[in-house]
Design brief:
alpha/beta, Rossmann fold, Transcription Regulator spoIIAA, seven-stranded mixed sheet
Length: about 700
């Protein structure tokens, strides 16, 4: 009789105990969180390796002892007769888990165990086995719990959840043993005479594990390398007999299993994995949108799936309408089916408007998840009137929307700010661009727990379509953190999708998906009008031009010439597109250059210069770093040399703490006018520090 430790993922110990009771009915079992102690013979340990669908590792206990000082680790490991376990020509590795007051470093613990092993071999044979962290022949596990250290031999080698068939995975894959737990918790394993569907199958793990179960194929049957392969006490005859018995136990499944995905690439991967697992003939694959997927002429069965969670906030916003529409489709086409869905984002499942029957906590890798079971009976499948939850945010948003409609009647634009963190607990900015919304979530204060901030964000995304009548898939969600330099322009996607918006007679292309900023700073709407009003017959220079919106207004205002300068070629090309959109042709120049270097070397004179630099930049394209508070005076000094007498400089920036030295600017021959309040639009009045703006005039 040996003592084995069978480990599993958190939340599976109850299921693991039931499984081991069936695999090894004569063994003695004792459940602990995330593991089961098993007292049995070697044959039972082999059976667990071969047949367990839930276990991670099968560990054979070799020694145990109390740890009161570092040397105790060595002594406990030295109790084992290592030459009877493996040979000097075998490689090995030591995995050490746990710490206490005496041992607070797992690498140190593993080193002490390793030293005891190699010293023993050196004493007996004058040679020692080598350590290999990559595919070792023998894997030793040392587990320290409080003052107790236990040393184990890992009979499984690699984790048992790593089946032979899955060489590649899709995005957010479910692990094989978690897939099995989902199938068990769903109830399907006790009722395999009915259909099973995974409508978002990804790499196919759930349906493949289901097919292995239905065909009674041992999950370890095709595995070639085990932790006991080089173990000296391995009983090969017993193992071979178990393999033969497992081969003979394979049966034909009672019912076809269905797998579907909208992604052709990941569906091909699922088919490849099914071929590798030798269960392809038991699975029917299809390529459809889950919102239109159904099984014809099939009795009600089970839906078991690992749908996308939306770990990134932008993904979450796009997934809300998907789950809303899928919920409606399920109610219409899957009456009396059972459904089990794994998620780490419970709010997504709530969009389906279904009442859950039961919920289980599971760990999929390091991700805390819930498996939610539903019964799609008549009561659950009734179409319910979706009532908007009235809360402070919804009430405030409604008021803002009503106020904006009145204000917009006097404006000539279809892009504006609707909400700007009006309520501290709903810390977002919401901007309208035609029939789209961009929701920017500001980083939550440290005293607000992450789950609370996420829940409030989901409330916002769920409420917006109903309050604003904007389609859910026209709502973009982004995270706004304090940015430095041109990080505000960094890419977050690469769709290259743009829409056209208008503002005071100008049209602009905006990209709502690919960047944190969209290509049009809405807070400078009035500033652009002022530039337009002062541009007639003038030579205009736009520095740090971004996508050239100020340049467009200058051109529309009748400027004699417009020069647009920005360091990014992407934005220079975008500026050209904005000029084309407005059908502007004339003396318009576009320069891709470091604005600071370009201006310091430039000799041409201008009547109007617009400067809106970043707060900070350390771009590799610049000769040095830029700090607006430190460097603005030198920038203005260079600009003055390029400015005609009586010419104007619009100088703006969005550094909240920025302080302008009016005396120093005046000493450059400039008259200073602070026009910040004048340039803050009505929809940005809640944030008077959204930007600073001055008008400098070169005196004669």
């Amino acid at each position: 009789m040996f003592e084995f430790l069978i480990t599993a993922a958190k939340g599976l110990d109850e299921l693991l105990l039931e499984e081991l009771s069936a695999i090894c009915p004569d063994s003695q079992l004792k459940s602990k969180p995330g593991q089961v102690l098993m007292f049995a013979g070697i044959e039972d340990a082999y059976k667990v390796c071969l047949w367990s669908r839930l276990a991670n590792r099968v560990l054979l206990k070799l020694s145990e002892g109390d740890v009161k000082q570092a040397d105790d680790l060595y002594q406990i490991a030295d109790q084992v007769n290592w030459p009877t376990q493996f040979s000097t020509n075998n490689t090995f590795v030591v995995d050490f888990n746990g710490t206490n007051q005496q041992i607070n470093n797992t690498q140190f613990g593993a080193l002490k165990i390793k030293d005891a092993i190699v010293d023993q071999f050196a004493t007996f044979f004058d040679e020692r086995p080598s350590v290999s962290k990559i595919a070792p022949d023998i894997r030793i596990h040392a587990r320290l719990w409080r003052d107790k250290l236990t040393v184990y031999l890992d009979l499984s080698g690699r984790s048992l959840h790593q089946r032979h068939y899955r060489s590649k995975t899709g995005l957010a894959p479910v692990k094989e043993h978690i897939a099995c737990a989902m199938l068990i918790r769903s109830g399907w394993t006790k009722n395999q005479q009915v259909p099973l569907i995974d409508p978002m199958c990804g790499a196919g793990t759930i349906v493949i594990e289901a097919a292995l179960m239905a065909a009674n194929i041992a999950p370890g049957l095709k595995r070639e390398v085990w932790g006991f392969t080089h173990w000296k006490q391995h009983q090969a005859s017993i193992w071979q007999a178990l393999l033969i018995s497992a081969e003979q136990a394979v049966i034909a499944p009672a019912h076809m299993i269905y797998a579907n995905d909208i992604d052709m690439g990941v569906l091909a991967l699922a088919k490849e994995n099914a071929h590798n697992a030798q269960v392809y003939d038991f699975i029917q694959f299809s390529h459809q949108d889950v919102r239109h997927f159904k099984i014809t002429d099939a009795a009600p069965g089970y839906i078991v799936s690992n749908p996308p969670y939306g770990e990134r906030l932008g993904d979450t916003a796009q997934l809300f309408p998907l789950f809303q529409q899928w919920g409606a489709w399920l109610k219409a086409h899957f009456l009396n089916w059972q459904m089990s869905l794994l998620t780490s984002n419970r709010d997504l499942l709530r969009q389906m408007k279904l009442n859950a029957k039961k919920e289980y906590q599971l760990m999929n890798g390091k991700l805390e998840c819930q498996l939610v079971n539903y019964v799609l009976d008549e009561q659950n499948c009734q179409e319910r009137e979706v009532k908007l939850i009235q809360n402070d945010f919804v009430n405030r948003l409604g008021k803002n929307l009503a106020r904006s409609k009145k204000w917009l009647k006097s404006q000539n634009t279809n892009c504006y700010r609707l909400y700007d963190a009006d309520l501290p607990e709903y810390n977002v900015a919401i901007d309208c661009y035609a029939d789209w919304l961009v929701v920017q979530e500001y980083a939550a204060p440290k005293n607000v727990p992450e789950h609370v901030a996420k829940r409030r964000l989901h409330e916002i995304v769920a409420a917006l379509p109903q309050v604003t009548q904007i389609k859910p898939d026209h709502i973009m969600l982004k995270v706004r953190e304090q940015q430095k330099g041109k990080n505000q322009y960094q890419k977050v996607a690469q769709t290259r999708q743009t829409i056209d918006v208008y503002e005071n007679g100008a049209q602009f292309k905006v990209n709502l998906k690919d960047y944190l900023d969209t290509g049009l700073f809405l807070d400078h709407r009035i500033t652009r009008q002022l530039v337009q009003q002062k541009s007639k017959g003038k030579d205009v220079l736009n520095l740090f031009a971004y996508t050239g919106s100020v340049s467009v207004h200058a051109a529309l205002g009748g400027a004699k010439s417009v020069t647009t300068v920005d360091m990014s070629n992407t934005y220079i090309e975008w500026a050209k597109e904005n000029f084309q959109l407005n059908k502007l042709k004339g003396a318009y120049q576009f320069e891709q250059a470091d604005c600071l270097t370009w201006l310091s070397q430039h000799k041409q004179k201008y009547d109007l210069i617009f400067i809106d630099p970043p707060s900070f930049s350390n771009s590799k394209r610049m000769e040095s770093t830029w700090d607006v508070q430190r460097d603005y005076l030198n920038l203005i000094k260079d600009a003055v040399t390029c400015l005609n007498t009586n010419g104007n400089i619009f100088f703006s920036n969005n550094l909240r703490q920025f302080k302008l030295d009016e005396e120093a600017v005046s000493a450059l021959g400039l008259k200073v006018s602070d026009i910040t309040k004048q340039t803050i639009p009505e929809d940005f009045q809640r944030n008077p520090k959204i930007h600073h703006c001055w008008l400098f005039t070169k005196e004669s």
